[in-house]
Amino acid sequence: MANRNPKGRPPQPQHAGKSKPSRHDKRKRLGKHNPNRQYTVGANVPLTGTVANMAAAMSRLLDSRMAFRLPIVIAGAMLAGGRRTAASWFRCAGVKEDWDRFYDLLQSIGKNASELMLPILIVVLKQFDPGEGGFWKMAIDDSPTKRFGPCVEAANIHHNPTPGPGDGDWLYGHNWVCLAMLLSHPIFGVIALPLRSLLYVRKIDIDKLKERYGWEFRTKHQLALELLHHVIGLLRASGSKAGIAVVFDGAYAAAELIRPLMAEGVVVVTRLRRDAKLFDVPVNNAGRRGRPRKYGKNRISLAKRACHRDGWQTICYACRGVMAEGRYKTFLATSHVVGGAVRVVLVEHARGNWAAYISTEPAMSVDAILQLVSDRWAIEEQFHDVKEVWGAGEQQVRNVWSSIGCWNLCGWLYGLVELACWDETAEQLVDRRDRPWDNPSRRPSHADRRRRIAREMLRSEFLSDLQNAADQAKIRDRLERLLFLAA
After folding, report:
1. Could you tell me the residue ranges of all domains in the chain?
2. Which of 147, 336, 424, 436 is disulfide-compatible with 428, CB 3.0–4.6 A?
3. For 9-50, what is each residue's pLDDT tens digit?
4. Rounded CA gap, 320 and 214, in Å?
5. Nearest CA to 78 among 50, 99, 101?
6. How far apart are the first and last CA of the chain?
7. 332 — phi, psi (to 5°)?
8. 209-231 tens-digit pLDDT
């Protein structure tokens, strides 16, 4: 079994000595003009359809000297398999001897992530605006990625949220604070579209980055607030009249995050600790001298309220695409974290197993609160697919801006595929006739959607020469490239 730290303190990273500098100095290579150097002008298999349009819109936000490279990298990522390093993206895209310029592109993506997400947000605004009376639903959470080696900038020990049988409670790598838009699909349930992520750097590593990049330390709550301020400002500047609801886990239930959001008119739904400090609603002091009380005098114990068998009610609500029946208790309370009254909902999953949630809008219904809580799980599914399908964290880049660019690019790839396949049926996304053991009614996975886009790219590229008349030379060339991709 894996050795675990009995004290619960994060261990310190231990590495061997750093390797020697590379003999292939980029500055020396670029200082000498090579007239025979081959430059990449396009992808071997270019993008098609909606993905191509959105990739082109994103590329127009970059410097014109490197903008054409972004669709090439996205096309390579669509076709890459195995361990999805940056080099595998470039190989499947057909990058030639100017590969070093594509690594520069990854740094530029990291530095301009706040602008590059705009085309995706514009598509979401046009297609899914709930209008006046509705709500934009957003989720905040953090997710770590494993990295290796002492030369990876900003990497350190972080808490492992999902330790398996062979993993420990801690991992070495990066930690990302992510913002996703929660959208309800009419058939496939709630889907989380990642918009932007920020890198959380531990305070112990700030000195190295501050000296090189002028980096400043910020907590996860401050990073989450920056992400939300940016997106909320864009939504309101676009003229959207819909309200905004934000849901996150109990780790983000802090006054420095919740109170600024409430000041902007945002409804916050979050989980509470079982030992959370709550008070009852104060008595109305109308007619008395002095400022009215904000908090009640009596402390509320969530554990005691959950232990009482009286007062539980039954409710049926939509939970992750299916109707679920649960038992709940609800009441009003006041909290120092929120700075006023909240709606508290206790949900009993099994006897003795319960959880507490709050909404900063006391008039919010229990059904709406539980709906938001269940919708938040979509961001966990998105983390799984971004890592398993797109290989987020596997790109083997060391520069901190390249790491930020690769992580955000993997999230945008997820969003591009989901948006491109939004209106397609399950039969169009996947054909399981060659898998009789599989459940034919199973919901198509994100990997099925990605393969659907990749098949369209290959079909458009390799069958285009057969539209008018057969050309043996072109057919042979296409087949050679197809064999290269298959290998």
Report:
1. 270-285+292-363, 427-486
2. 424
3. 778 887 777 667 666 666 676 677 777 788 899 999 999 999
4. 43
5. 50
6. 38
7. -95, 145
8. 998 998 999 999 999 999 999 99
